[in-house]
Structures are given as C-alpha cells and as structure tokens.
C-alpha cells in the first residue's frame, strides 16, 4: 500500500500537468476562430492579377505539410452606385468564399446557381427579387440567383474570421447595404474582370483543421504552419510576388499560453508531489524496520554464518520486492484510470504516460534500494559494529523532542510572504497567474504545523494520563489507558489524519473558490447571460421588446457624470433576466419592489460601501432617496452608485439616458436576430458571460489545487489504513484485555463503548482540527490566489458545510469499523490460549 500510494501520487503529478496542458489547449481552441489553428494568409489591396497565383501557390504547397485545400475568401471594395431595378443608390461589396454555398449561407429564396446572392434585409426593404440583374456604372453584373439571410452580428462560428468583411452592421453610419456573395469562384472572377477592378480589397486564405487536443498536437500544427508559410513565401518570391501575401500564425500565442499553463501546473505541484513521495519513502523505511524486527533471529543466524549486510538487504528485497512492485504498478495504473476524477478535463499529451511510468519506475527503484539499504545498514551496525540499542533510543528520543513545528511554521511564514503578491501576475498583462511553488506550499505547511502541534500536545497529555482516576467510569478509564499505552501510533495517526483532512479541505476550498469566483465575477460584470447595447427607442418604450426574447430579457439604462453610477432598471423584469451572483435574490427582489414607494426624491437602492457617497443622480434629476443598500449590483459592481426604476423617470428624462442595454438569458444570436427583426440596431458593445472574462487563469489555479485535494484524499486513505492497522497490530493485546474485563463483569456494550471512545477521540480530534485548520487556511488563501482582483466580487471561500459533514460521516464509519474489528477479536478470543501465548 505504501508503494501504491507513492507511485500513484508521483504518476498523478505528471498526468495532472499534461491534462492541464490539454485542457488549456481545448479552452484556447474554443475561443479562437475555427480556421485560425493553422496558418493564415491575408492581405488588403492585392492586385487582381496576382490573386490567382497566390491562391495557386498556397494550394500546391499545403498538401506537403499535411494541410487540406485552403478556404479562400475574396472581397472587393464597396461599389457605391450599384443599380437595382433602375435605382443606383445601393452600396454593395462583391465577395466569394469557398464552401460558403451551399452549407453556410441560408438561401431563403431562389437557387444557388451561377450568379450572386443578395442579403434579404435589403432585398425585402427595397423589393428586389431573385432574377434581377444589377449593374455598376453601366456594366452589368451576374444576375441575382437567390436571396440569403444576412449573417447575424456577431457572425456564426464558421464565419468568425470574416466578421469584419462578411457581416453588415446595421448602424446608421454604416457605409454598406449588403455583401453579395458569388456562388462560385468563376462568377466572382468574371465580375471583377468585367468591372475592371484593379485590386482585391481583402484576400484571405485559411484552413479548417481539427482543433488540437494536446500541447504536443498544437506544437506540431504550429511547426507545420511555419514550414508552409516559409515555402509559400519562397515560391512567391521565385515568381516575383514575395510581398503579395502575408502569412501569420494566430494560434501561436495560444500554444505559448497552453504550454505555459502546463508548466505552471507542473512546477506548482512538484513540491507537493515531492513531499508526498518522500513520505512514501519514509513509509518504505518503516516497513524495512518492521521486517527487520520480525526477521531478526534469522538475520542474526545468517550473519553469523558469514552473510554480508548487502546480501541480507537483498534478502529483504527478495521477500518484499514483489508486493512493492505490484503495489507500485497498481498505483500507476490507478493514477491513469482515475485521471478523469481528479484531473483537469484535457487529453494527455504525447509521452505523458511514458513519463508517468518512468516516474513510477524510479520511485520503485528508490524504494527497493531504500529497503535494501536500511536492512544492510541496520545489520551492519548491530551485528558487525555491535552498536548498543541505547544509542538508537537516544537518537529516536532526540528526534521526538525536536521542535519540528517551528521549522514547518517558518516555511509556512515564508510561503505567506510570497502569497501576498501572488495575484499580481495577471494584472501586468500576463494571461496566467505567476508561478511561485513556495507560495503554493503555504497551506500544506500551515496544516502540517497545526497537526504537529496537536500531536505534541496529545503526546504530553497521554504522558500525564496515568494520573487520571476515572474507575467509576471504567469504559472511559480503559480507553484512556489504551491510548496512553500506544502513544506513538496515536500521535502518528493524529498527524496524518489532521494533515489529510486539512489538506483536503484547503485544496477543495481553493479550487472551488476560484471556480465560483469566475462564475460570480462574470455574473456581476455582465449582469446576465448576454448583454447587448441597443438604441434608445427600446429604452424609452417606443418600440417594445421583440416577442421572441421578451420573456427572458430586461432593459437597463446607465447614467454617469455625477460621481455615481446610476442604473435605470425595470423592476418587474429585472429579476427574471439578470444574474445576481452572490446577492440574495429575495433581498434584491424586496428592494426592487420598494423602488415605486412614494416620497420626496427618487427612490433608489444605494450600491457600494462609500460612506461619503453623494445623493446626486444626474443633471435634471432630483436627489436619490435611499430605500436600502447592497454591497454590489450587476453592471455597477462595487462602485458607488444607485439603482432606480424606469417608472421614476418621465419620458423626457428617459430620452436623455445616454446608454441603453438589454440583459437577457437568451443567446447572443437570438438577441441580435430578434432586434434586427424589429428594425433595431445593436451597438458594438456586446458581451456574454462565457466571453466576458479570460477563464484560463481561474482554471489554472483550480487545477493546481485539485492536486492538493488529491493529496489530502490519499493521505486520508493512509490515515484510515493506519488506524485500522494500529487496531489490528494490537489485536492479541486487545483480545486478552477485553476477554479479561468481560470475565470480571463488564458488559460487552460497555467494552464496545470503550473502544468507540478511544477511536472516536482520536478521529474526532483529527476531524475537528483538520476541518477547522483547512477551512481557515482556505479562507485566507482564496482571495490571495484570485487572478482578477480588479473585478468584484472578491474571491471567497465556498460553503464548507458539505465537506465537513462528509468528512464527519466518513470518520464515524471508520470508527465504527475499527470498533467492530476490536470487538470481533474479543468475541472470537480463546482466553486460555492467549494467556499461554
């Protein structure tokens, strides 16, 4: 079991880091355009005669580097004065994109035969139908064979990289009426040639590759992209077109970030993994000493017959090597099988399994070498040098009285000084939090210090327990005496149990704290699942909300300039659409309901903690009359501000609000399409909770401390096994003592209660100290590890009650099991045989 746990943690550290890199790559792939994983060739104002040669060069070179045919996009300049049905006031752009037709343009009328596709917005507004032949300055263009539904703003994911050129923004000052897509490349070329257009305004070539799943896949894709760009540049240079196109690597930065995320997690958890492996090696050393004690007569005989200490060490390896190797292999296999439970949601990179296996093999070799070395040194000292046991006892006594808790407290203090400034990395433009392994060890060393201190106090208490005289309660007296007779195992189990529970509580608290921080920060920052700025006609009520989104959407206005942020809300619809983060929904609902209360001034909810906050709302508005206070509010955050009702403002006052937004639980596409359907434009300020914040820094902290939680869980297994083994080792002693007290008249129920008191006191102390220490350390650390401290609310510890109850329940089960084992040995004992033995 010792080898299993050591190899499990060593392998898990490697797999955890590799999976973190894969999860980072998957996250970066999800926020990047799907044709940006590979190389991108693009340039504006490309000579029309050079465009075919550029496209041909990229298409010929791509297969040699593992890329399929590129998707080519071409756009002309705005053709001002395009004529439809005799009206020459239209402004259009001719475009063509491979694979757009059919598949990625929704043709609602007509066909996709050779010709042009016109957007339905202009077509319906101006009565232009399929079959119309447009012209530009007297030159006929290919006929309009079909009408397509204009691309929404923002564009669908396949069109992500073409947002600037393929999407028409319906703002009042937009210079473009529609993008007319040619159904095939020949139609586009013929139109450009017929019009005599000298240059393609934008030429764009990219590749729709499968998103990389691991860092190694992303790096391979990056290297192939660099090679393709170099070959295309060389080929065009040979044709005299060296500067005709520019190659770029949009995903290069994402690869660097993913690689850094993997390195950050690995470096951060290495100290914890090293500590756990050292503890495992110490366990192997303990196993070696126990084996030596059991085999001492045989070893003495072999040494007397001339066996060298090294040979005796190899004898230990021969006896214990197979279970150690079996345990180590099982630990490595379990680390891989359970990765989905404890690790990040990412695929393993190439070589991760091999590296993890090598680490496990190294741990096994060290364990076997340590086993042989301990036995060899011990036999050499005792059989050849004749060292007396008193010297060993003095050394053990010195180790016992050494103030180890002072040493661990010093390391914890050093980690705390480094933790204070931990979160500054992301504020300096670094997308990931800084790496400081010493700061990450702070929680572990605090818990370890508390555990060592508790063990020392327990040791002293047990030393003085012989003064206890509680024979009026024999069950309690016997429990105290049993604890006192096994001080070393008791303090050992107490240290391991406290460290396990404290580390588990700390790891889970910090990991979940960062996940909840991301959730609540995005909720307060955005205010809903989707926020879209819109025109004032929606805010003033001249145009009602579209029916498609009215059930999930609310309208908010924003006023600034008076020193306060004033949010104008609709109390009736705000609660159903807004996300309140950590705020109490009932309290918010109560305060929103009070915004219509009569009285002097405008009833308002005061936001923030500024004691000197003024009551002035905005020019031309009465002062605020505070009906309640909240520490923060959606969109406002923790800044000084007020929340007022739309009903408190007149029509003229509503018209003076400079900024109106929609908060909606619907998707961005649903909101924008619904607004366009009623002729309302959406401004460029659009945000969703998924895209509002860079979640990767939060994930990296969470992935790092999930390993600490894993370490706590493993130590918890060690603590449980230690307790059960301690009971089993004392089986004969407990059986004899129990049988005798039963013969003397104690009831079995009282004897069971005595064992439960003994074991319950030990496990209960570990649970109470571990949970209290772990929760306290996590509460102090969570805000320090916040990678976005500039956004409200500040990261806070999640509710620790479920964890505490779970740990308590497990502790009760373990105590019950250990008590059953102890009583079973008493019930099955043969008193006469025990006395003879």
Automatic annotation (TrEMBL):
Entry superkingdom: Bacteria
KW Signal (keyword) present: yes
Record bears the keyword Transmembrane: yes
Signal peptide (UniProt feature, chain positions): 1-19
Keyword entries, A-Z: Membrane, Signal, Transmembrane, Transmembrane helix
Spans through the membrane: 265-292, 312-339, 351-377, 398-419, 439-465, 486-511, 696-729, 750-783, 803-823
Name the record gives this protein: Putative ABC transport system permease protein
């Amino acid at each position: 079991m010792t080898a299993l746990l050591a190899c499990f943690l060593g392998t898990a550290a490697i797999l955890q880091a590799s999976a973190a890199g894969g999860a980072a790559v998957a996250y970066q792939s999800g926020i990047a355009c799907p044709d940006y994983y590979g190389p991108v060739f693009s340039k504006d104002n490309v000579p029309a005669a050079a465009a075919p040669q550029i496209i041909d060069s990229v298409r010929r070179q791509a297969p040699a580097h593992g890329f399929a045919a590129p998707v080519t996009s071409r756009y002309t300049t705005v053709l001002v004065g395009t004529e439809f049905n005799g009206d020459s006031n239209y402004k259009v752009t001719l475009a063509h994109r491979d694979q757009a037709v059919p598949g990625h343009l929704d043709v609602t009328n007509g066909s996709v035969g050779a010709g042009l596709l016109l957007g339905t917005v202009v077509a319906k507004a101006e009565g232009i139908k399929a079959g119309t032949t447009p012209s530009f300055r007297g030159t006929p263009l290919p006929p309009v064979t079909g009408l397509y539904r204009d691309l929404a703003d923002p564009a669908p994911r396949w069109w992500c990289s073409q947002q600037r050129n393929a999407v028409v923004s319906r703002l009042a000052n937009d210079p473009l009426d529609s993008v007319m897509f040619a159904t095939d490349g020949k139609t586009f070329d013929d139109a450009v040639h017929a019009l005599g257009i000298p240059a393609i305004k934008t030429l764009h070539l990219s590749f729709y590759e499968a998103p990389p799943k691991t860092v190694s896949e992303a790096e391979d894709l990056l290297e192939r992209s660099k090679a393709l760009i170099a070959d295309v540049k060389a080929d065009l240079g040979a044709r005299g077109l060296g500067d005709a196109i520019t190659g770029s690597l949009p995903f290069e930065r994402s690869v660097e970030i993913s690689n850094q995320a993997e390195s950050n997690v690995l470096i951060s958890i290495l100290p914890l993994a090293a500590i756990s492996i050292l503890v495992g090696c110490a366990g192997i050393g303990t196993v070696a000493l126990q084996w030596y004690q059991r085999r001492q007569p045989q070893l003495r005989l072999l040494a007397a017959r001339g066996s060298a200490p090294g040979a005796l060490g190899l004898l230990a390896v021969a006896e214990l090597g197979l279970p150690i190797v079996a345990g180590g292999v099982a630990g490595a296999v379990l680390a891989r099988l359970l990765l989905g439970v404890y690790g990040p949601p990412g695929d393993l990179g190439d070589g991760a399994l091999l590296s993890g296996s090598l680490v496990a093999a190294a741990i096994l070799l060290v364990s076997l070498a340590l086993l042989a070395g301990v036995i060899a040194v011990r036999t050499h000292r005792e059989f050849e040098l004749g060292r007396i046991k008193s010297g060993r006892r003095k050394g053990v006594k010195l180790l016992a009285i050494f103030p180890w808790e002072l040493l661990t407290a010093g390391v914890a203090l050093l980690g705390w000084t480094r933790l204070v400034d931990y979160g500054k990395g992301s504020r300096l433009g670094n997308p990931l939090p800084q790496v400081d392994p010493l700061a990450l060890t702070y929680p572990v060393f605090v818990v370890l210090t508390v555990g060592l201190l508790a063990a020392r106090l327990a040791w002293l208490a047990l030393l003085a327990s012989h003064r206890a005289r509680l024979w009026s309660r024999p069950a309690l007296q016997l429990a105290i005496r049993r604890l006192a007779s096994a001080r070393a195992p008791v303090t050992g189990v107490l240290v391991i149990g406290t460290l396990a529970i404290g580390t588990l509580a700390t790891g889970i608290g910090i990991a979940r704290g960062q996940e909840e921080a991301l959730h609540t920060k995005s909720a307060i920052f955005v205010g809903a699942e989707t926020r879209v700025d819109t025109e004032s006609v929606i805010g003033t009520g001249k145009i009602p909300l579209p029916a498609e989104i009215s059930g999930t959407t609310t309208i908010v206005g924003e006023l600034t300039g008076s020193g306060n942020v004033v949010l104008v809300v609709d109390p009736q619809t705000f609660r159903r659409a807004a996300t309140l983060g950590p705020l109490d929904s009932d309290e918010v609902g109560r305060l929103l309901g009070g915004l219509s209360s009569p009285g002097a001034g405008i009833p308002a909810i005061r936001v923030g903690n500024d004691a000197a906050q003024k009551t002035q709302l905005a020019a031309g508005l009465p002062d605020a009359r505070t009906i309640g206070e909240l520490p923060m509010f959606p969109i406002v955050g923790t800044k000084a501000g007020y929340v007022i009702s739309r009903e408190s403002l007149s029509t003229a006052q509503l018209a003076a609000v400079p900024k109106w937004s929609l908060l909606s639980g619907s998707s961005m596409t649903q909101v924008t399409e619904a607004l366009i359907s009623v002729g309302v434009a959406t401004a460029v300020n659009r945000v969703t909770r998924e895209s509002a914040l860079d979640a990767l820094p939060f994930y990296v902290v969470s992935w790092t401390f999930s390993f600490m939680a894993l370490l706590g869980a493993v130590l918890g297994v060690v603590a449980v096994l230690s307790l059960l083994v301690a009971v089993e080792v004392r089986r004969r002693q407990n059986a004899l003592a129990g049988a005798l007290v039963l013969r003397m008249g104690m009831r079995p129920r009282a004897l069971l209660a005595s064992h439960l008191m003994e074991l319950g006191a030990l496990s209960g102390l570990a649970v109470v100290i571990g949970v209290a220490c772990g929760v306290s350390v996590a509460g102090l650390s969570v805000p320090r590890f916040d990678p976005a401290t500039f956004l409200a609310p500040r990261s806070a510890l999640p509710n620790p009650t479920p964890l505490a109850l779970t740990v308590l329940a497990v502790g009760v089960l373990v105590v019950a099991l250990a008590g059953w084992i102890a009583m079973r040995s008493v019930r099955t004992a043969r008193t006469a045989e025990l006395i003879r033995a």
